[in-house]
Specification:
By secondary structure, this protein is of the alpha/beta class. The protein is built from five helices and five strands. Strand 2, helix 2 and strand 3 form a beta-alpha-beta unit. Helix 1 packs across helix 4.
Length: 164
């Protein structure tokens, strides 16, 4: 059974099947699907999308830092005198009024630090069930904090504020 055609080397042709006879494995998901985005990263994206949307209407917001923190810390929990507002822990510390946990807050410029708007991820996530609800609540919180920064009503910062 000699064949006049010499066999090809297996290294020169692509493998179409693995050694168990199954086909090659393809990608788990299409390239446009972000598989490795964590909930925290997705939340940061929501905050930055909301900030960019407002920056188109209010260009002065380009100088404002939009920061995401996990949870706020009360002065009692901090166990120290008032924290430095320029330090990262200063963005989390607030005086708890005993009624509700803040979803965000505005931190005025101090020294070389610019104005900051802090959004707290866990309190927002706890109050929402779906990604769409979360996006709406994040935008509302960002609008409220920008309104406080600008000294305006939230409805004048974003005319769609409060509408579903």
């Amino acid at each position: 059974m000699d064949s006049p055609v010499p066999p090809r080397h297996s290294a020169s042709r692509p493998r179409h099947r693995d050694r168990h006879g199954r086909g090659m494995r393809g990608p788990i998901a299409p390239p446009q699907v972000p598989l490795s985005v964590s909930r925290g990263e997705a939340f940061v994206d929501l905050v930055h999308d909301s900030a960019e949307r407002l920056e188109r209407r209010w260009p002065q917001l380009a100088a404002v830092d939009f920061v995401v923190r996990e949870v706020p810390v009360t002065l009692r929990d901090a166990g120290a005198p008032a924290a430095d507002p320029d330090g990262p822990e200063g963005l989390d510390v607030f005086d708890f009024d005993g009624e509700s946990v803040p979803l965000g807050r505005y931190v005025p410029a101090h020294g070389d630090a610019p104005d900051r708007i802090v959004i707290y991820r866990r309190p927002v996530e706890i109050r929402t069930k779906s990604r769409d609800e979360r996006a709406l609540l994040v935008h509302e919180v960002v609008v409220e904090q920008v309104a406080e920064l600008l000294g305006l009503a939230p409805e004048s910062v974003d005319p769609r504020y409060g509408q579903d």
